[in-house]
Design goal:
Length: 186
């Protein structure tokens, strides 16, 4: 099998390096990487951030020659919120499981609130406040334990929780909502 040589012309002579077998372009590895770096200036390169995004906590970013941005929320790495910026306020309805029961509650600070409640698992978070919580209480009223925010774990309630954002950690949703608040009002 004949060795294919690089097709780049350097001055008046062609590059004499071999092309990797199976390569789709007649470029040696050195020139293929140079072309990749040239294109990466425009489209960026997705990679692990040097440190977690301060806005949303993501570890994945896009690297450009001018710097990094978070791949999730597009916060420019290294930028700090203005000193006068307050922390974003995001109300959520949370779904906690304790044994065979589910608590449907609301909080503007779910991490702190969940530390106060005995539970086995955070099943999901839904963006919304008191009005949404009351709608969920009414929607699942037939499964409610009298005068509490606790409900029997029913197929309907389970289906609703699973529909919130399947296969995503609820805290990832919360970080994204906070990031959007910073982007909109920060």
């Amino acid at each position: 099998m004949a060795v294919i040589r690089c097709g780049i012309i350097l001055g008046r002579a062609a590059c004499d390096r071999p092309v990797e077998p199976g390569a789709e372009l007649n470029l040696c590895t050195t020139h293929l990487l140079a072309a990749y770096d040239w294109m990466a200036r425009e489209v960026g390169v997705t990679d692990i951030l040097p440190s977690a995004c301060i806005a949303c906590g993501s570890r994945v970013g896009v690297r450009y020659p001018s710097g990094w941005i978070c791949a999730r929320c597009e916060w420019r790495v290294g930028d700090l919120p203005d000193g006068a910026t307050v922390q974003p306020h995001v109300d959520v309805v949370y779904y906690l499981r304790f044994r065979d029961r589910v608590k449907i509650g609301t909080s503007g600070n779910p991490r702190q609130r969940l530390t106060q409640l005995k539970h086995d698992e955070l099943l999901g978070l839904e963006r919304g406040g008191r009005a949404l919580e009351q709608r969920r209480h009414a929607e699942f009223a037939r499964y409610r334990f009298d005068r509490t925010e606790w409900f029997s774990l029913s197929p309907e309630l389970t289906a609703h929780i699973e529909s919130l954002n399947p296969n995503v950690d609820p805290w990832d949703d919360y970080a994204l909502w906070r990031s959007r608040e910073i982007a909109l009002h920060g």
